[in-house]
Specification:
- Keywords: Signal.
- InterPro entries: TAT_signal.
- The chain is mainly beta.
- 12% of the residues lie in helices and 42% in strands.
- It has three helices and eleven strands; from the N terminus they run H-H-E-H-E-E-E-E-E-E-E-E-E-E.
- Strands 1-8-5-10-11-3 form a six-stranded mixed beta sheet.
- A hairpin with a 4-residue loop joins strand 10 and strand 11.
Amino acid sequence: MKFRRALITVATTAAIAPAALLTAPSAFAASVAPSANANIVPSAPSAAHPAATSSASGLCMTGNPKYKPVLHTAISGLPNKVAAGSGWHDFTLTIDNPSQTKVSNVHLFAGVSSTDVGFKAFPTSQVSLQAYFPKTKRWEDVTDTAGHTDGYFGWGWLNPHGHINVPMRINVKKNAPIGKGMALGAGFYVDATHKCTAITAATYKIQIAAPGRHTR
């Protein structure tokens, strides 16, 4: 659990860093399946899911604050404001590989935070998060084993210049607290060259509004 929370903290830091934001694509179409250059496989929620990181010596950013991941991540399609009790809202988590090298075992992570500073996942009783897998034609819950709206939900690989577009959606329930929140999407993978766990991540700030309020 401590290692998992450490990954979330570093992912959030990476996502809000100016360099990471500048390299992320600005917009993508919603509900797009993974491209021919990528594949995504669903997996059951687990606090210790990224087993592939065991072969790495540590987190790349921890050992080198100036480290830049090869992959780029973006979140698109979410409204700036989401009214509690307004149902499902679709968005897309995109991970790009602009390099000439195939990247394997990219472990996908996502969550919704009750604050836009740091990361504090909502309980699933207040906010639901799901990812869609075109091959199985099913929406799968993204959650940890303790009832929080964050977790590892799949893994994939990326060919050179390939990308993964993951259709996702959130449901902010009527009992969710009004205020600022944040969606986080990330990919964790082993950087074989530097022998460390690399993180590519993006955040998207949202405002949770009172039930019945018009949002966009």
